[in-house]
Structure formats: C-alpha cells, structure tokens
Fold these 2 entries.
Entry 1:
Amino acid sequence: MRLCVFDLDHTLVDTPLDLAAMAVDMRALLETRCGPLPARPDRYRVGELIQWCQSNAPDVEKPLWEVALDHERRAMAAASLEASAREAIEGVRAAGFATAVWTNNARDISAEALARFGLLSVLDLVVTRDEMRALKPDPDGWRVIVEHFGVPRDAVVVGDSWVDGVAAGAAGVPFVAYRPKEPDLARWNITPVARLTDLAALPAWLRARDRGAR
C-alpha cells in the first residue's frame, strides 16, 4: 500500500489561522490562572503550552483548548480551498496512493471544512488532535495512521510548515514541502525530498519518483 498524507491549514485549505496569536492568547489565559511561565528565549508554541498545562495545571487544559477552538473556528469560517487541492488529491489517488489528512486542528472543525470543500469523499482517513496523544511536531499522528492502514510500503507527507517536516522526519517518512518558509526549514534542519509551489504538480512528481526508483 502506498500513502500520501496531507496537512490541512495552508496546504489543502487556505486560512488566516495565526498560530502565534493563538499561543499568545493561550499563554495569557494560562498565566492568569497559574502565574508567569518560566522565562525562555523563544516564544511558547501551542503544543508546548498544552504540555506545560498537562504537567502543571491539568484543570486549566479544557479552557485552554477552548481558546484554540475559538481561533480555529474563526479561521475556518474565512477559509477557502487551496488552489489545485482537489486536483492534487484526485491525481494522487489515480497514481495508486491512498490519501489522508494529518492535522493539529480539532475533528469537528476539520471535518466541517473538508466537507464544505468537497474533500471528504476523496480522503481515506482524517487524523486530528482528537485522535492523537500529542500535536505535531510530535509524530504520534503517524501511529494513528499506521494503526488504520498498516505500515505502507511507500509514503510521503505533504505540508507547508516546519512542524510537518519535523513530524514526518520523526516518523521516518519523506517530506514534500508546499510553499514552505525556507528559514524555518533551515532552522529545524529539514531537507524536503521536493518543494512545490503548485499542488497540481504533486501527482506528476510522484510518478516521476516512481520511474526514477525503477
């Protein structure tokens, strides 16, 4: 079995979701309830705030997720289908690949967006934070994917962000970067097997990769 796994935000759908702003609001809530967090040179990211909360203030985890959900709902309400997203998924399937989404978003919000854009029918699996034990860049979502499909003989992860690349690398899966931020790739030592500026090019790239492997 061959598998192509897509990120959701800024890969299949274009949204104004701002994870840095989400983290600022989550940190503000956490510090209101628990006091100042330990100082550090880098900003706290969403997954790190959740981990800190789970270890130090588990009673605050639910309201912390509500802050995240509010950001996600507003972003998805303004979302649009990424150019060539459906074409890419259908082309990947025609090339013999099963298809999945691996996203840090909540299941209800993800499913609603995928249904609105007519993508649920061309996806074999959707893995959200509700099924994972930890958010990307942790690779736990890959565990969920393998439990569903088994270990694929060939797989790629397609995403826009360094978190997708780190998660793919930790899972041992090649990463295809879609319009990535190059400084982020360099900072996290991510070397994609391909860089795409148009999702429509993905099926042809997979076919060329197959020919090159023969």
Note: The longest strand covers residues 97-102.
Entry 2:
Amino acid sequence: MRLLRPGAYLPTVRGLAHNALRREAVHPFYASFKITSRCHFGCPFCNMRGVRMPDRSTEAIKEVLDNLSRSSVLMTSFEGGEPLLREDIGELLAYARTKSFYLLFTTSVRDPEAYPLDEYARSIDFLHVSIDEGHGNLDMFDKLPGLCALPTQVSVQTVVTRDTVDALDGKVRRCHEAGANIVIIPASPMDGAEDCFPDIPSLARKVRELRRRYPRTIHTPRRYFDAYEQHRCSPASIIIAPDCRIYYPCHILGTKGPDLSETDLRTWLQTDDARRMRATMRACTRNCGWYQYYSIESYVSPGTAWESLAPMVFQKRRRGRA
C-alpha cells in the first residue's frame, strides 16, 4: 500500500477521536460513490435497475471528491452501475488519485481488455472485479491471472445467495491460485430486488473453513458475523448516489441527505437532521446483513481493520509464489 501525502491522515484521526468522545460514529471512514447508475447487467439481488439517474457532470463529481478529501473518509470507492461506462472515467480516476484518500474501483465488465486498465490501474489502489452467478460472468475467473498483472491490488467481489454458498470453494481457490483476494458479500435483501439472502450460520461456517484452507485470501472479517448476530449497524461508512446526494443513514433504508457537490459533509454530519437519521439507524430492527459497504461498527477497530487489510498487504508475496 502506498503512503498518502503528509497530513492526509489527520482528518481521519480527528474523526476517530471525535467519534470516541461522542461514543457515536458521526464521522465516516469509507465512502461508496456510485458515479453512474448505468450497468450492463440486471442482477436479481440488486435494485440499481429501478433507480436509474442521469450521470452528473465531471465537475460535480470532482466537487464531491474534494468534499470527501476534506473529511474523515480514508477510502473512497468508485462504483455503479458500471463506472467504466462513464466517458470521463480516466479523468476522474486521475483526479481522485490527487486526493487525501485511497481509491477502490469496482467493475463487472466482461471485456476488461477493451479498456485501458493498465493506464487506469495506476490511479487505483484497490481494483475489485465483480464475479458471481448474478452477473453471469464466472468465465471472468479465467482472466484473473491477467488482471493480477496490473499495477494495483486485485480482489474478486462475489455476492453470495442462498443457492451459491457451496460454490465459494472453487471461487476462493481460483483467487488464491491467481494471487488475488476475494471479498465475500451476502446478497442483502433490498427493496425492489429479489430476496436471495443466504443462511448466515452456514455462510459463516463456510468462510471459517475457507479461511483455514486459503490463508490471507479472504477480506471478510469474522466480526461481520458477530455484528449480524448482534443487529449492529453503523454510519461509519456512507453511500453517495449517482445524483451526488448521500444515502443516510444507509442505502437500505433509502433516505437521503444533501447533495455533496454543494454541501460540506463534515458540517452536515453534525446537524440535527443527521443526528435524527443516525437515531433512525439505531432504532432499525430490519437486520438486513448489509456488509457491502463496511457499515458495521467493528470495521473501524484496529484488529478488524488489520484482518481486512492483511490479504492485500501479503498479496504481492502470494503472487510471486503463484
């Protein structure tokens, strides 16, 4: 992992201190930015097909990135839809690289060779490639060794439904052999999508088994399953919709805060509106198992952070042995 410029970590440290004093996750550390709702797929477990929005301008996206760079956010993720469908994606990646956060990029394209990924990867800290039955692109595992040659950290992001828990064995093995990591994401039940949520105890047993067989390959930390059992969510992670408005307190509830191309995030998070929305999250009994954006309190603990980051830290060494 690269080191950010001197001083880039200070807003995050201040955010951690403020959250500790308040005993509440006021300031987030992870931001999922859905920079487009356009997509090649119509996955049954995803509701993005029902929320199509026009793309915002290049300048509006840059304003949001400036906003996040001033905040406690330490990692920003470009997602969609499919972010490679934006004609200005190269410009946005280069701009994001200059900001005070790490950049994660998620794609599900079936033809990655049709894009200048070698160029784009130089602006990306962590490249996630979505491969699962919902996308119907399991053949992408054959392209994984080539993707692992890119100048960036590479992970497979796979959504697990109740019918695909047993298929994890082959997926984790393919990632381990190629020198990639894997992020295992339960198909959280979203409004406007099919309910494909897996049996969590069965998934937890499977992940424990695979972690023993393929060490330092799986990102999903053990504390995710603890958080699910305890019904504990947190706004320590945020999602920004394609219209640049922040979903708050979470994407599943669907309520939104302001347009972050116009409103300072740090200031708004301390308003009465934001406090009321966080209270709504604390009172929520839905327990949707929404792992996708690290929206559980334990992800900001040092031990859990290391458990998630260790596979990436050791990825280069594993690639050398592959």
Note: Residues 200-213 form the longest helix (14 residues).
